[in-house]
């Protein structure tokens, strides 16, 4: 009994459990990077699309995830890019405090959570941690850059 008790409260054991949970059991986020056109489906597992199209989303790439995906993606930026997010007031948007709110009107009608605010942020060279959003729905991620060969300017990984 004493061995089980000491094993459970051993700080080295607790750290190894935390490491295992964080690095070994962590699920990879399923995503696709696609050239976006107005009317395309926003999510991998839902057929939601925008009913109002802002010009900021022209010539962008969409990072498609599942509607209720959560977690973090990392974007390695080689040259400056602009990230655009469609967000919902129902989600926790505290992480977007330094993003710019667009005056353009947009809307993605969905069951339960509508996305009707477009925000953007310029990302400089480096690796950036991007939350998928939540807790009710993932916030779609659009990427733009002035160059026509956009994918040479960034890479995305889990």
What does this structure look like?
It is a single chain. The protein is α+β, with helices and mostly antiparallel strands and 158 residues long. It has helices at residues 2-8, 11-24, and strands at residues 31-35, 50-52, 61-65, 72-77, 81-87, 100-101, 107-108, 117-123, 126-131, 141-144, 154-157. It has a six-stranded antiparallel beta sheet with strand order 1-3-10-5-8-6, with no helix packed on it. A three-stranded antiparallel beta sheet has the order 9-4-11, with no helix packed on it. The radius of gyration is 19 Å and the shape is globular. The protein starts with a helix and ends with a strand. The mean pLDDT is 85.
In percent terms, what proportion of residues is strand?
A: 25-35%
Helix content: 10-25%
Q: Give the total of domains.
A: 1
Q: Structural class from helices and strands? A: alpha+beta
Q: How is the main sheet built?
A: 6 strands, antiparallel
Secondary-structure element series? HHEEEEEEEEEEE
Q: Whole-Å distance between the termini?
A: 41 Å
